[in-house]
Amino acid sequence: MTALIEPLLPAADAAAERVQQWAAMGLPVPPSWRVRGDAVRSMGAGELADALAAAAGGNDERYWVLHQGPATPGSQRESLLNLDSDRALAAALLQLFHRPDAPAQVIVQSLPARQAAGVLFTRHPVRQDLEHIVVEGVVEHAGSDPARLILHRDGHVAFSSQDDPLGQCVGAPPFTQLADHLRSRFDRPQAGEWIYDGRQLWLVQTLPVGSLPRPDEAWSRRAGFGLWQQAVSPLWYTLAGRWLKTAFWRPLGERLGWRELGNIEPYRRQHSHIYSNSRFFQRLLDEGRPEMNEAMPPAWRPVTPPAPRGRHWRRDGLRPWLAGRQLRNLSNQLQRLGTSDPALADLEGQWRRLMQLDRLGEALAAIEGWLAYCQAPDAHGGDAAARLGHLLPPAHRDALIALGEGSALPDGAGLGADPVMPRFGEQPPELARLLDVPADRLARLSALSRSMPGLAAQAAGLREQLGSALRRLLLGMGQVLVARGRLVRDEDIFFVYFDELWLLWQEQGSRRPDAETLGSRKVRFLTDAYQGAPDWIIDQIAYGARLDQRERPVLNGRALVPGKASGPARLVHSGWALSQVQPGDVLVLDQCDSGWLPWLCLASGLVLCGHDPDQPAALLARLLGIPCIIGVDDAMHCLVSDSLLQLDSAAGVITRAGPTT
């Protein structure tokens, strides 16, 4: 008997079988044996079945897995044969060992009767931008179609097949635990084949996922850190992007010795959105900023992020005080510039004013870059009203309070800092929608705190004031260029790049954009603003883009504000889409500028892609009692505007209730 079947005990040495090595790692490997071919060939089927039963012990309700050798020549993947009885295994062994190319020995594993089986990917096998656990499998007596369960890394359900057979049979925790075990023991993403026996989840084999190489470069639209939240105009990109590069990233890299990043751009504009270079966030992570982990592609994220850096009196005590003082000085300078605008006929004065605002923008970018990328997020206690008041720029906080009181929204606030966006004082048509905000929600807005906002909120408010000053100046300069025959419309000035603006203003050069070029840029900008853009561009491949135009029937997220809601979906990619918001819509947002919050008061429910429960949109939902689900990563690409949705926010479930209206 010993010569026929040899038990395989955990062993970590290189000569051991892989199942022994996995067992030594603490992975849930079923009881395993080595079966020798020379002993099997001399036995009959009944005798062999009895010998196998004696080795396995227990009752007759047993399930066997036979490792038949490499699935293809040279492959690491074993060809597995699932057998439901001792006699079936005996017949398979006799057939295998009587082949001309029979192996000398094979491995068999025994476990109680199977209830479900499939494969688990520790990372999404197709989407390099998602750190999801993907489980596929078949549940006994639940049909032959494979079911799918997708989990966030923390174990919360991101997506499940209708009726959720895997979740009901096995549940999410065993899969999350197995994925954590595999991630902690292997450097590369794994595809683990599993079997569930009704009590325990077993791993029968695991292999690296060959379709997930480590990318060479990655650009993220979602790593805006409050600076880039929607489509940006060409002129704003060349201004604000240059400010951050020259005033923040370049000095930071020189101080920390990032020589390899000296000639690399931190941002690029694609699909009319700003994408941030993840290599910069990788270096910040190495410097002890664990918040940067989410700004890198999953393949670059360490299993255990570096520990946060220790507190330093100058950096964490003196620097915030100094930043507050600098923000006050910049605010005073901006107010002084706003007391008088240069006349339209004063061409030199207008350009001089543009350069003054440009210098203010560069000084502000040095502070705001430090607040966004190097300073821990503002911590503020209290209820949702107090925390929201602390996080909002003063003008946007005042806009919500004014909405609740029935007064006019602040003139200088708007739907974003970009000068192309209209300000509330210009009475954009979007304001008409706010007349339909329910009275009970208006009353709750008065609870917002008027205390001093945090430094990041102060900087964001100053950035919007700067954008408003630029808008006034640029519209005047646009009128001058129209009168001189250089532009067709004054708003065309927002769709030229800064070097082109210089050529237009100085009437120099032949490489000035013509009317057709500017028209094409405007169409592309508005199209991207309404339709959105991919979340990531990794090795020049876009991820998180809506390509197949198919909706998922069920999406899952994390419950934030319990309740049920239903209504047409309204995807809000930018401030331009707010004119389409109707009372009772279920608003779906990826990123949210704080200037959009008044329109969120119209929603019957909110679906947020972000996971942060303290993001302004989530805090507003808590303040007003709007049913809200957060952490729905792919909502912008799996839902369609005007399709009817049902939200059960207590369960974190979003269901498509009907066809597109």
Describe the structure.
- One of its GO terms (molecular function) is transferase activity, transferring phosphorus-containing groups.
- InterPro entries: PEP-util_enz_mobile_dom (IPR008279), PEP_Utilizing_Enz (IPR051549), Phosphohistidine_dom_sf (IPR036637).
- This is PEP-utilising enzyme mobile domain-containing protein.
- By secondary structure, this protein is α+β, with helices and mostly antiparallel strands.
- It folds into 4 domains: 108 residues, no CATH class; 91 residues, D-amino Acid Aminotransferase, Chain A, domain 1 (2-Layer Sandwich), CATH 3.30.470.20; 256 residues, no CATH class; 107 residues, Glucose Oxidase, domain 1.
- The chain is built from 19 helices and 24 strands.
- Strands 17-24-23-19-20-21-22-18 form an 8-stranded mixed β-sheet. Strands 9-8-7-6-10-11 form a 6-stranded antiparallel β-sheet.
- Strand 3 and strand 4 form a beta hairpin.
- The protein is elongated, with a radius of gyration of 30 Å.
- The protein starts with a strand and ends with a strand.
- The mean pLDDT is 89.
